[in-house]
Design brief:
globular, 74% helix, Amino acid/polyamine transporter I, 14 helices, 367 residues, two-stranded antiparallel ribbon, mainly alpha
Length: 367
């Protein structure tokens, strides 16, 4: 089905913006309501979920090296229940990608292109992503290799230019009320970090699969560093007002003014958002296409790329009526929804698969 191959390093590069792209803009405003000055600690607890998810995906891949969860569910829980589980994952990732596409549209229309119809903004992004997905996993990985370093440098540039406006006293006292506030603030980003389970769909295409676990963990660490940096910057700048803004990082950039010459740098955030979200949508889109093709037992996924793009557009409009409704979903239901299907159920499958393997080993010894 997919002839392309990527390295474990390329997989790690792909996964970084897949997690961080939307999290840096949306998560601080949601997490701060619980974490307050411990906002910067919350990603640390959330990253633990990312590490567990990567480990589960890697262990399942070792047991079923050339298959994704849509395929090995059939071996672990039987053909009937496996097909049901596979269908649930197909719909689940359609729904998630629909939400991501809508997040992109709400940000672009709400902050930069208020007079542009939403369907034009969303449709153009889906069309560009469709071309990358049609090219396969290698095309997505090469695009990521070019774009991710640029995004990372732009992000660091923002942090450096804001240094003179940051108030370190805002993040003190640390853990004034114990661990609970920062942990409660980590629940929403835990949902984002659970998206590292997407590597379950990428591991079968690795040239150096034995390095998959190491680079998966490095990718989690890189996402953690960027989220901690984003949280530190916005809370040092705004303090308790962080939760007032929908996109704190965007508002923070408007504070940049160097010698009354270098200012109004919102375009940098726009560049980070569009570039990172392109990779994120493309990766989820690829998973949508691959998982659907696997569930339908198709020999080639390319004929369904455009039809699935149309379905994704429908999901993006259906997922939420407006930004407020979407924000409410992301801050309440979404973390448990994401964790159930990207942490709990895969862990359940891994436990059953390990039990089955031990039973087979015992039977082999008795013979």
């Amino acid at each position: 089905m997919e002839k392309g191959k990527i390295s474990a390093l390329q997989m790690a590069i792909i996964m970084n913006p897949t997690i961080v792209a939307t999290a840096v803009l949306l998560v601080p405003a949601i997490s701060v309501k619980h974490a307050k000055q411990d906002l910067w600690i919350s990603p640390v607890w959330a990253a633990m979920v990312g590490c567990i998810v990567v480990l589960i995906a890697y262990k399942l891949n070792k047991l079923y090296p050339n298959e994704s969860i849509v395929e090995y569910s059939n071996h672990i829980i039987g053909q009937f229940f496996g097909k049901i589980a596979g269908f649930i994952y197909v719909i689940f990732y359609f729904h998630i990608n629909g939400i991501i596409i809508r997040e992109y549209g709400e940000f672009v229309v709400g902050t930069f292109l208020p007079h542009t119809p939403m369907y034009v903004v969303l449709g153009s992004m889906v069309l560009v992503c469709a071309s990358a997905v049609y090219g396969g996993v290698e095309v997505i990985s090469r695009a990521s290799q070019i774009m991710v370093p640029v995004v990372f440098l732009l992000f660091l540039l923002i942090a450096v230019m804001l240094l003179k406006d940051l108030e370190i006293k805002n993040i003190f006292p640390v853990m004034e009320d114990g661990i609970k506030p920062s942990f409660m603030g980590s629940i929403v980003p835990q949902g984002w970090f659970s998206e590292f389970f997407l590597i379950a769909f990428l591991l079968p295409f690795l040239k150096d699969r034995q390095k998959g676990l190491k680079w998966g963990m490095i990718s989690v660490a890189s996402a953690l560093i960027l989220l901690v940096l984003a949280n530190v910057v916005v809370y040092m700048l705004f303090g308790e007002l962080t939760g007032v803004f929908t996109y704190p990082l965007m508002v923070a950039v408007r504070y940049i003014s160097i010698a009354d010459f270098l200012e109004h740098l919102e375009a940098i955030v726009m560049a980070i958002w569009v570039t990172g979200t392109f990779i994120k949508i493309a990766v989820f889109y690829y998973v949508n296409v691959i998982s659907t093709a696997q569930w339908l037992n198709l020999s080639d996924y390319r004929p369904i790329v455009l039809p699935i793009g149309i379905i994704l557009l429908s999901f993006s409009f259906w997922s939420a009526h407006n930004l407020q409704e979407m924000s409410h979903f992301l801050s309440t239901i979404a973390p448990f929804y994401f964790l159930t299907l990207q942490l709990v159920f895969p862990l359940f499958l891994l436990c059953i698969a390990c039990i089955q393997e031990r039973i087979q080993q015992k039977r082999g010894k008795t013979k």
